[in-house]
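Feature request, filed as a ticket because there's no other form

It would be nice if the structure record came with a short human-readable summary line next to the tokens. Right now we just get the raw output. Example of a typical job, pasted below so the devs can see what we mean:
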Amino acid sequence: MIQNCDIPDVFLIAQVTAIPKIPNSIALFDFRPISGTSDVLKALERYVKEILMTHFRPGHSTTKQIILFQEHINRASQKKMTTDVIYIDIQKAFDKPKFEHIQEELKEAKIDGNLLNLIMFLLVNRKFLVKVNGIHSSQTNADSGVGQGN
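Raw output as currently delivered:
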């Protein structure tokens, strides 16, 4: 099933519910879309994530980068130097990436074969519907973007 990407459509549908970011929200941007997916899809995504974690380059983990940054700050502090930091919040960074770009990035990270096919299948074949006040919209394809938490 997994090797051939033979996954029934029903497992690929997410139900999107709008959750207010602040009380008494009325503006569209005051809501956060939360996608509820099937337990089968969640389990499959966890499986893929476990495999992927072994594919990333040694020494390039987020934890490693934080430790290196902390060491840099400590060395600068010992030398009575200052360290400037700029934090950037890239709003909606995962909303618009094109699937072709994601596929190229995965290939550059040496992810290929059945694993690449499965990841791309899960991205390209995602569908969703929106639920508002107990009423469901019609189902549509997710043409770009990556679901949060995926």
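Something like this underneath would help us a lot:
The two ends are 20 Å apart (CA to CA).
The CA atoms of residues 19 and 32 lie 5 Å apart.
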